[in-house]
Amino acid sequence: METIGFIGAGRLGTAFGIYLARRGRRVAGYYSRTYAHAQKASAFVSETCQAFQTVRDLLERSDWIAITTNDGAIERVTEEIVDSGIHIAGKLIFHMSGAGTSELLAPLTAKGALVASLHPLQTFADGESGARAMEEAMFSIEGEAAAVEMLSAWLDELGRRYFVIDARQKPLYHAAASIASNGLVGVIDYALELMKLVGIEEEQALPALVPLIKTTVQNVAEKGTVRALTGPVARGDVATVATHITAIQGCASHFVPGYRALGQMTLSTARRAQLKDQEKITELTRLFE
């Protein structure tokens, strides 16, 4: 069984380490910007998980290396691995950035390492909750063929779903993931701001909206976006949409562009199945311009 070491002891690295340890995998330990961060992460994972003071020490004790730093540090870490002088031929080294490709690790290929990127489609608030979230995460793999094959087999053993993508597809893939996660948070915050205009503060509005959000997401999961869509746009209710815009324009005109942008996307979804009345489509298109 492979022994995996982590470079980077933040939320993602800690969560993945905890998840792997609970699955009976050997986690050598962590190397981080500060030794204290490495100690904290290793303590969360297991009694045998170590905190390393140098990248050299971690490389010597690990078969596989997961780089879980922020994206901007990956190239620096790559240089640090090269400069360590450790023999890395045959070692699998992958980063877990959603946006970056395995090309960031190109200098390691020249040293004989097998390189890839492995990204969990999940968000991580902290190590413990992140480890639980890993149980449902789907992964993307991208990199050189041998590394992709090794990671695919590994994920199969762990019972995790995954898909393999090309390096050129990575930015679009990450854009989609960011919209589904970060963009959703932005949309919810937008709704909360509108609630404030009604006089309902976030402390009361958020608990009121969360059940609606959960049900919507569940409907999407069960039915897909087209069949899950409800509301005035799906119905072609032009009058209600016009009332929304007038109300927002009257008290917070700077929120109107956001409403219209979201309306255009919603209309695009509605037109795929539910809304076929061309006159209503034309009127809604005009309102969202």
TrEMBL record:
Pfam families: DUF2520, Rossmann-like
Domain DUF2520 span(s) in chain numbering: 138-265
Domain Putative oxidoreductase/dehydrogenase Rossmann-like span(s) in chain numbering: 4-120
InterPro entries in alphabetical order: 6-PGluconate_DH-like_C_sf, DUF2520, NAD(P)-bd_dom_sf, OxRdtase/DH_put_Rossmann_dom, TM1727-like_C_sf
PANTHER family in UniProt: CONSERVED HYPOTHETICAL ALANINE AND LEUCINE RICH PROTEIN
Descriptive protein name: DUF2520 domain-containing protein
Organism from which the protein derives: Aneurinibacillus thermoaerophilus
